[in-house]
Amino acid sequence: MSMREINLPARILMGPGPSNVHPRVMQALSSPTVGHMDPTFIELMDSTVELLREVFQTKNFLTLPVSGTGSAAMEAALGNILEPGDTVIIGLNGFFGDRMSQMASRWDVEVVLVEAEWGHIIEPEAIGKELRRHKKVKLVAMVHAETSTGVLQPLEEIGKLAHEHGALYLVDTVASLAGCHIPVDEWGIDICYSGSQKCLSCPPGIAPITLNDAAIQALDNRKSKVHSWYLDLSLIKYYWGTGRTYHHTAPINMIYALREALRVVLEEGLENCFARHHRNGCALRAGLEAMRLKFLAPESYRADMITAVMVPDGVDGEGVRQVLLNDFNIEISGGLGPLKGKIWRVGLMGQSSKASNVLGFLTALEQILTKEGFEVPQSAGVNAANKILATS
Amino acid sequence: MSMREINLPARILMGPGPSNVHPRVMQALSSPTVGHMDPTFIELMDSTVELLREVFQTKNFLTLPVSGTGSAAMEAALGNILEPGDTVIIGLNGFFGDRMSQMASRWDVEVVLVEAEWGHIIEPEAIGKELRRHKKVKLVAMVHAETSTGVLQPLEEIGKLAHEHGALYLVDTVASLAGCHIPVDEWGIDICYSGSQKCLSCPPGIAPITLNDAAIQALDNRKSKVHSWYLDLSLIKYYWGTGRTYHHTAPINMIYALREALRVVLEEGLENCFARHHRNGCALRAGLEAMRLKFLAPESYRADMITAVMVPDGVDGEGVRQVLLNDFNIEISGGLGPLKGKIWRVGLMGQSSKASNVLGFLTALEQILTKEGFEVPQSAGVNAANKILATS
Lengths: 392, 392
Known about the structure:
Two copies of one chain form a homodimer.
Chain A: E1 12-13, H1 23-29, H2 39-56, E2 62-66, H3 70-81, E3 87-92, H4 95-104, E4 110-115, H5 124-133, E5 139-143, E6 145-146, E7 151-152, H6 156-164, E8 168-172, E9 191-193, E10 207-211, H7 213-220, H8 233-240, H9 252-268, H10 270-290, E11 306-310, H11 317-328, E12 330-331, E13 333-334, E14 343-347, H12 355-371, H13 380-391
Parallel strand pairs in A: 1-12, 3-4, 3-5, 5-8, 8-9
Antiparallel strand pairs in A: 2-10, 6-7, 9-10, 11-14, 13-14
Helix pairs in contact in A: 1-9, 2-9, 5-6, 9-10, 10-12, 10-13, 11-12, 12-13
């Protein structure tokens, strides 16, 4: 069994990542492996960093891809700043805020959770209150697009509050980078990271991160070593930055792929890329609404790249997902944690964010729901989506 | 600059890894990305684990690829077993033993170093002495093939000593797995890990690890959480083993590549693969010796997959490496740490371990050394290597 060929299906990836990969990225991924100290590779590293800075809209020197998936970047971001005795405020309104807290609580750090119901945003004032209540907060950490709920968290005001209280500001943009406007420098984000397999449409396994001077200073001023050698940016920075000192062997081919993915995004243009994500997100929501489906998140905070739809009463959510996968080759995702079985999560990220995916998915869903006995006005979803796609 | 095409040269990779990648592995790498919970991917995960067990020669249930490079697996191996207050004995006779100690010293662990000169093995009795001297040693950690020195460490006796004293036995086989005989179960190795880009000839970025029941028991009995969430095997085991609970998004395409690399190795057959590494290693050493070059390691402990040759007096080692790269497209490596500038490291790992590489390298080196004014008997290297390649 283990030795036989496995034929991988060409899925339409409309879950919360991975998204579909551009053919050019696949080609780059399978380019000849060179050594991690090869002059050609060093040049490629430099240009990858430059492209990352453009996508993060930052001038930060310390910008690089972490050799792991988005969660590795999350741990690198938190773990390089926090040390025993520090206080961190974490916004928790979904699965990934919870993950941050699970990480930070391992390092003798005081973790202050500011919670909101899953599906809602964290109110800036709730963060402000905790900032005032605690003597010295080192870090405020927020998730931008919570893929577990489809909520897009407003960022600017919380950043200002953090800085007013002398705290650093960390933002998770795993699902949002390249999908909507994230001007890292302008919004005062001190530490920002992302993943590769969402709006960047690269396979998973490499994760961009950027730290500004204030964050580097915090790193430099640490009294204790970073908990993880593998993720220790005070060492890694000498491989990616000045010196080129070997730290660990970079995931070379994944870096080829990331660089190509960044080129694809920047060739389209950031603004065009954001507009495409917004247009397709609007079309999907309009379609689902016309099919009389409800959303988890309130209207004003719905992310374009990931939509959480309530599974209608009496419908077997998991069953629908299986039919979508088996009969239509479309992957969407279910709910995590307390939302398990209650929602579907439909992603429109990177190369997966396209009109044909919106229309194909709505058509398939209508067919399946109708069979399941859930009454859907005929073609209402596709028509509503089409209206938006045609006019924008 | 950053947006332009970068043409990657098809190097002959004869450094300490990455090694050249088999075309079938490249093809697998660029197969369509599917979701990390896709039934096709789950099936592929299962078969990858089965193939890993064959290569590790183990029945260990907990066998999986860590989502990072070899150093991530090193940190996972050490960090899942060790917790504050524990004592670990680490054999230090090269760069990677030192890396282990740099990791373990971050976690309030007592690190006992058993040192030997770089280029020499660690004598089992030296480990035995420290095992007797310390009351309760949790773990003994050794590097099998030290790529920094070309030394192959004998493993069996140290394992027995560790177990006699109730310690677990951890072995780094980053450079040796699939290059020589490593029967994990038979040799009583409790925790073993490797890298992908050495004798497995897969691109870097994914790293196999295996833990037996005794190691899992140590993990289960921990009083504190593992230092790293990303590398926490007590969570990851539920994604790779029973339950299929999502932990982090697996580096999907890298796992495709690893699986194909394992298939390539097992199709050749482990014994054939070891014999090939041995034959080519012998041929290389015979050639270098005939060219009057000296080795760092004593004869009985020279690894077949990586050879450390002394740079002859008066020869510019770095200059020779550059000519090899620029004029012959061959990558070899220099020395690390105290051996910087003093040795060349020539790898014959995985797909890079082939007769044509041995002969091509010896020919190129003769030409360059002759130009440099170092007297080499004409064709002596190639002839000596050929003799071995022809008779075996």
